[in-house]
Amino acid sequence: MNKILIMVAQRLGLGFLTLFVVSLIIFLGVELLPGDIAQELLGQGASPENVAALRAQLGLDKPPHTRYLDWLTNMLQGEFGTSLANNRPISDLISVRFANTLFLASVAAIISVPLALVLGLLAALYRNSLYDRIVNVTTLTAISAPEFFVAYILILFFTVNNQWFPSLATVDMQTPLLERLHKVILPAITLTGVVLAYMMRMVRASIINLLASPYIEMANLKGMPKSRIILKHALPNAWAPIANIIAINLAYLIVGVVVVEAVFVYPGLGQLIVDSVSKRDIPVVQACSIIFAATYIMFNLIADIVSIATNPRLLHPK
Amino acid sequence: MTNENTTPVIDNADAAPPPPRRTKTEVAVAELIKAPWTAKVGLVIIITYVIAAVFAPFIAPYGESEIVGSEFELPSDEFILGTDALGRDLFTRLIFGARNTVGIAFVTTCLAFLIGGITGMLAAIFGGWTDQVLSRIVDVLMAIPQLIFALLLLTIFGTSVPTLIIVIAVLDATRVFRLARATSLNVVVLDFVEAAKLRGEGTLWLSLREVLPNISSPLVAEFGLRFCFVFLTIAALSFLGLGIQPPTADWGSMVRENASLITFGDPTPLYPAAAIAILTVGVNFLVDWFLHKSSGLKDGQ
User: What does the pLDDT look like over B188-236, one tens digit per residue?
Assistant: First the structure.
């Protein structure tokens, strides 16, 4: 038990270190920007006094390391600065949108995770059967198709031809849960389609790997019923890789929302970062990037910890 | 590689049972005939796209950004798929899109393999500090989700095709680095590499003549997968309006430009999207077979 705690602490430390370096990259990247943000905002005709005033207002007159420390400490307190495009505090912009993105991602996760487990398991059990081959081809196709292709096909069928679901997922704070679910269903299915395929393939591969191990063969030779082999012998050992697969795909899901949100005009973090990139609203892009990166790192960290904690061989390295 | 294998398919299909010693091409052809239908479909798709890309000006009925009709004309004999918001022929732009979208993705993937492959092999050959520094840099770059990192970098450096190619290539090179390093590590400890080192061969010889031939098969498969990934990333960025910029014909931006039509039940935005999907499916089918093949032939690699 103690060993696990030490391992978790180590991984957490490593995670924070990574996040720190990532924040440094995000900050320094903007430092590399040719020219001056204040100059660019005010245009070429601005007087030097105005530029100097704006520089002071944005804190650009301070040396980079003080600015980095200010930025970092403010961010840790939930203050991300103000948007260059509309002068609103970024934390206001982000909080609602991040909640929306998490909602969309959770709906997609709730649909895709159980489905992936069942379908992947079946594909592994009936390996090389017709079902398995169909699964192989369809998942490969689903992985290959860009998100917007899937999204527009869904819109064509469920909005234009049948009018079951809206093609615009415009929700706000006041939208009641049921209506919210109804509006979010098409983007969620789109996301599901992409993640499901990855997850199924990974589940299938890890189960097949497991079924090839000698102790399963032994159980088979003993004449044990197949259901018992799966439930009592294979599954307990499969949970670790499966948990790992789920965590990795959740990380992917959080990032995968960017395109889907753009298609369905869903007011989430992905939409915000895309808008801000085209407006070159750098503080907002920085803030969104660090949030996406932090979520991504967190899920990968969980995946790491789960796979080490459940595998004694990794827990006691040579 | 795919191109030279395809031409003799018909000639050799009815050839007698394999002669005692076969050339590389004949082996490849024989393998291809035995390949599952998915791989064959994939190959046909890829060849079609390459032909479309290379001969675009001869196939397309009009010029790339030539305005030939009024806006949003319906499909007719004159315009097979109709026209877009500016009155340009959609079919023409679809054909030119093969050249631009696929071409840019291909160049990007090649660059990513050049960067990732070289650094990966060097990390494995030199080991020690070189390996540590390169690996840690790659770790950090991989900690940031790729699309988000690309968005950040494109904000900083602006959206133009050269920046797009360099940004995506550098980000993708991290994955190539990992694979090249991991596979090279297995090779550099082998005796023949040791012998070459004792012979006094330089790094260039070691990497190109000793290591590279032994890691090429996983790298080729990875090239296909990476190409799909790069292609989809660039398409996504263009779709978001942050990738390839108009008036260049590009599938991602074409979906974006015509997106509003879908709400009227007009499938126009699906054509360029399908063009993207079909190519990635084709490449994936071929790579899937290749992976199966190479992992079956060389166990434990």
Answer: 888 998 899 899 888 888 888 888 888 888 888 889 889 999 999 999 9
Number of independent structural domains in chain B: 1
CB < 8 Å from A in window 60-119 of B: none
What is the identity of the amino acid at A159? T
- Residue B97 has phi, psi (to 5 degrees) of -60, -35
ipTM of the complex: 0.81
Q: Is position B5 within any domain?
A: no
Domain that holds residue B160: 38-294
User: How distant is the Cα of B156 from the closest Cα of chain A, in angstroms?
Assistant: 6
pLDDT, tens only, A214-265: 998 899 899 988 888 888 888 878 877 888 888 888 888 887 888 888 888 8
Q: For residue A136, what are the contacts with CB-CB under 8 A and spacing of at least 6? A: A123, B288
Task: Supply φ then ψ for residue B70, to 5 degrees.
Answer: -85, 175
Residue B301 lies in a domain: no
What sign results for the dihedral spanned by CA atoms B224, B229, B234, B239?
A: positive
Taken as a whole, chain B contains a residue count of 301
Residue B23 lies in a domain: no
- Chain B partners of A26 at a C-beta cutoff of 8 Å? 152
Cβ of residue B142 closer than 8 Å to a chain A Cβ = no
Q: Position of tokens 């071929």?
A: B286
Residue B212 belongs to a domain with what CATH number?
Answer: 1.10.3720.10
**Is residue B24 in some structural domain?**
no
